[in-house]
Design goal:
The chain has 255 residues and is mainly beta. The chain is 13% helix and 51% strand.
Length: 255
């Protein structure tokens, strides 16, 4: 057994010592890179055109860098409109520099895949109290092959405009619990509303805080499993329809 191990080690050492090229890629033709980025004036959401990215393999493309950036103790939101003709999926990636170190956020839950029409993608980045960001890098991650169009990139913070204080119940007041409202299972749970009037006002407040550019379209009342929900449809600036579910069980029927 000792002789076999020694022989195997000798073979590995000899192979490593021999060295040599494993592959050589020619840069004479740019098509060998497998990535093409171009302007497309015929496919767009706004302005004069969009950026079309065509790739032969999974890749990450830097779409822009924001520096200097002066943001502290807040939430950064990276948004973009994306269209795809892919075998795979694509999503946004945001890198933020805080105190000299880079941190990232990926919008895995907001992605396009296959043949998708224009869709607003986003990913948030939360800065803790005392943290300050001085640089942001806006990326698009493509896990697949094909083409992706990107338009209307925005890096923003929640609106800081003064809002009318929400009605309070006792010392705790109105609170928002649950999920992001993207489904009934992830409904935004409203707690502490005195009645339906203050509860509905709280729904509007939550939208202003999280999606200030959305416009309310229509609403429906749903009941399931002993709970009550408001299902509200909103229109985004890009013309898309988004649905948010609010769990209103806590104040339902109170007048």
């Amino acid at each position: 057994m000792r002789e076999i191990r020694i022989a195997a080690l000798f073979v590995l050492v000899c192979f490593a010592a021999a060295g040599g090229e494993l592959a050589k890629l020619s840069m004479d033709d740019a098509s060998g890179v497998g990535l093409k980025i171009e302007a497309d004036s015929t496919t767009k959401v706004e302005g004069k055109g969009s950026v079309k990215i065509t790739t032969s393999w999974p890749t990450t493309v830097c779409l822009g860098e924001v520096t200097p950036l002066d943001a502290g103790n807040t939430k950064l939101v990276y948004r973009a409109r994306v269209k795809s003709r892919l075998e795979g999926k694509a999503y946004l990636e945001l890198w933020v520099r805080v105190s000299g170190r880079m941190y990232f956020s990926r919008g895995l839950d907001h992605a396009v895949e296959g043949n998708a029409d224009w869709k607003e993608l986003q990913t948030p980045f939360f800065l803790k109290p005392g943290q300050k960001a001085d640089k942001a890098v806006l990326n698009l991650v493509i896990n697949g092959t094909g083409s992706v169009w990107v338009d209307d990139l925005v890096l923003s913070t929640p609106s800081e405009a003064p809002q009318k204080p929400a009605p309070r119940t006792g010392k705790k007041g109105i609170s928002f619990q649950g999920g992001d409202g993207s489904s009934m299972a992830k409904a935004v749970v409203i707690k502490g509303a005195q009645n339906s009037f203050t509860g509905v006002a709280a729904e509007s407040r939550w939208i202003r805080q999280n999606h200030p550019d959305w416009r309310k379209m229509k609403q429906a009342l749903l009941s399931e499993g002993g709970k009550h929900f408001d299902r509200i449809e909103y229109r985004t600036p890009g013309g898309e329809t988004r649905t948010v579910y609010f769990d209103i069980t806590d104040f339902f029927g109170k007048w």
